[in-house]
Design a protein that fits this description.
The structure is a homodimer of 237-residue chains.
Chain A (H helix, E strand, L loop, with lengths): L1 E7 L1 H4 L7 H11 L3 E8 L3 H14 L2 E5 L10 H8 L4 E3 L1 H10 L7 H5 L2 E3 L3 E5 L3 E7 L2 E4 L3 H11 L10 E7 L3 H14 L4 E9 L2 E10 L2 H18 L1
Parallel strand pairs in A: 1-2, 1-3, 3-8
Antiparallel strand pairs in A: 4-5, 6-7, 7-8, 9-11, 10-11
Helix pairs in contact in A: 3-4, 8-9
Chain lengths: 237, 237
């Protein structure tokens, strides 16, 4: 099963805010056997959101969006998603009662009422942190951009997701340059088609090294690959 | 002037590595008046790279790529870019002499020689950190994924970039919920079309607040907007 993430927000594209949702979602999805295959970061612009959602929801099993579902003028995600699905954006009675439980009537301002407006036909996704819910429409999950809230919403989304075998990973760090092991590593990759082998240089305590990462949903092949890699390294040292 | 960034790397999509290049590039581009408008994170797959580069280089003034130009089997960016432009990937004599100055002949292994292969017609982009260069082909800048190297390469790329007025930004942090100021903020945005106003909730020392961010390439309008925002806030407190 494959998923994509659409990060919606000018604050990410201006460099003001460092996104933290991508790596969290990727790791979380791995554990339930769904592969994050593509990510797009786009501006808070209606047409961009509509086009991107409509393209990716056909291309992937699941699409997640983060950002733009708050109460201010720059929060246009829910409205844009409704347009992408060609349905009305309307006050969702369940969302309204959630906010009514949380806020006094006088606190339920027009701005907060905006957060009860959900595309018709969508199911709510619970927000355990600050109440105003996310939602799911077909295979698209619309979540908040604030990492803590997004992470809470993911737990609510879990029931709707069908995954596969979890993707396991293992790694070996070696203090040798990438180029020194490149050839043997390539041979190893040729012998293990079900294991994805990546090579990532690092600097630790002023010493250069390479992280050799193996990823597979087949635990046996992952273990085999690791032994062969250890053997390969022992011959090079 | 508008730019896009293509982050190439399974390690980002698996959640193993937290990207740091997006926010750096965005901020760096702002300063020379180029707007980062879209970012895509894609897998180390030839077809994905070719299609994405060919789409975005027509859509934006500049395209930057990060990742996949090292010596190992999973580094396929240079080859894919050559295919995207339908030119040969060949040993670049200038790149070769750079590496020859840096490495002894015996150290110039086949793996390292891979890093001298550059699409025909491309210009080199200097790598002040670890020598193996990036390159520029038409409006596409191909850079390393390691943040320190990527940042060094950007300085080399600068001479090729034509920007506009730098985008300036300013902000006011208020300790009130977003929803409390949403209506006034929307009115303010309607009055300042050349200023992009964003509203971002935060938690600091356990207190909830909202960061009101203004961005514009017009310094005068930015200052006017800020005074009006201060006035707006003083009325709400």
């Amino acid at each position: 099963m494959k998923a994509s993430l659409i990060i919606i927000g000018n604050e990410i594209l201006s460099g003001r805010t460092q996104d933290k949702n991508l790596s969290y979602l990727a790791t979380w999805l791995n554990e339930i056997g769904i592969q994050l295959t593509e990510v797009r970061v786009i501006r808070d612009e209606e047409k961009e959101i509509i086009d991107t959602v409509n393209l990716l929801r056909k291309k992937y099993d699941y699409v997640f969006t983060t950002g733009g579902i708050g109460p201010t003028h720059d929060d246009i995600t829910s409205e844009s998603i409704a347009k992408a699905f060609n349905v009305d954006l309307e006050v969702n009675q369940q969302a309204l009662s959630i906010l009514r439980e949380y806020y006094k009537d006088s606190e339920l301002t027009e701005a907060r009422m905006k957060m009860t407006k959900i595309p018709r036909g969508a199911e709510l996704v619970e927000n355990p942190v600050s109440k105003a819910p996310g939602f799911k429409i077909e295979n698209v999950f619309v979540m908040a951009g604030i990492p803590k809230i997004m992470q809470g919403m993911l737990e609510g989304a879990k029931v709707h997701l069908i995954g596969g075998d979890p993707v396991r990973s293992d790694f070996i760090d070696v203090y040798m340059p990438e180029s020194f092991i490149a050839e043997e590593l390539s041979d190893l990759q040729d012998r293990f088609h079900d294991v994805e082998i990546g090579s990532y240089p690092f600097v630790k305590d002023g010493k250069y090294g390479t992280s050799l990462v193996m990823r597979s949903s087949d635990a046996k092949k992952l273990a085999d690959c690791k032994s062969q890699m250890e053997l390969m390294i022992s011959k090079l040292v």
